[in-house]
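Hello Y.,

Per our agreement to keep a running log of every chain we model this quarter, I'm adding this entry. I've kept the format consistent with earlier entries: sequence first, then predicted structure.
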Amino acid sequence: MKPRKSIVALLVAGFAAIIGLSFVPYTLTVVSDAGQLVSATFNASPDAASSAANVKVESPPPFDAGAWYAGRGEQLETHGALVETYEARKVVAAHNPDQLYNPASLVKLATSLAVLRKLGVAYRFQTRVYTDGVTDASGTLRGNLHFAGNDPTFGDATAARVLDELKKRGIKRVTDGVTVSPDFSFNFNNVPEKSAQNLAKVLKLGTKKAEAAEQATGALLFSVESNALPQILLYMNAHSINFVAERLGDMIGGPGGVTLFLVGELKIPAREVLLESTSGLGHNRMTPRGMIAVLRALVEEAKRLGLKPEEIMSVASDDAGTLRRRFRDTELEGAVVAKTGTLTQEVDGGMTSLAGLVYTQNKGAVLFAFFDQGNRIAENRGMQDELLREMVLSQDATRPLPPAERKLLPRDELIIH
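Predicted structure for the entry above:
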């Protein structure tokens, strides 16, 4: 009888233990890899059981850009788009936002931001004019004129101001020659000797020679300062001047310097930025999300410096340049401030890009970046315009800026002293 009594006692004790455990949480104690005791308490409460159901799932953007492209029979992988509000950071539309594309001349926006951040809103290029001769009573300078400076916008307008200043100082002719420093450029010409020759032709001072020279000789006659940096950036972006973008980029370390800025300052992942140039020429890579980060930072930097985005980028259908005929006679006319990008089929099979912002009535500024690969340049431009129009009008109404015909790089704002 003793074995039976022992079994019964064990059963009773086990049943009591089970009943006790059913009313309290229980703890398992295990040994971790480091040899430490780790306790995990399990409590089968209704809240814990339903926690997975309480996970917040983001709703899709209100405008389906992927379906929009698909409805036109487009190859979806050749298109990338991201649109989001500036203030609220709400995504309005997204399609392949993290895929790498060639941004083409949209790289100029990254260059604009980095240069503006480094040089500041008041920066002007200075060109110094020297002479090693004397001027006689007839207005003839017997000697040379030497121009030293690296202003990438020095051209006909600046030369005209220089000529006016020379006449004010009684100089009508120059007997010897016009020389320029090795970093001098005239009308976007990268060869100093050619720049000297073209400058001499415009000045028409009767000089015998025009060439490059390492150092200036003589005394400083006067200096001419370029337009302020924001005006230079506006001109560069409106007309997409590669020469100016490359010269500005050289001042901040070239493509490597701009890349370091984007990765270090804007925290764009290094694998999502590959720049071969600071103008957009060649094989460059960015994502729509990265370009939106550049746009947002550019708008914020402009605001910090007391500028508006339209003081750095052109207004579509209002300003001269690559956006002159875009969005004309549509609801977006005068409401889009943007930068274009175009590459022919020799590079990545062709690329058409557009990025900027559109002013709306209720959502404020809406940032957008479109990347369209392929050599159908005109067709892709029309598709970008229609996509932006449909997307904006499906969510809001536009708020066009007051119409204004702006003169880019105004000559009367050059400074001579």
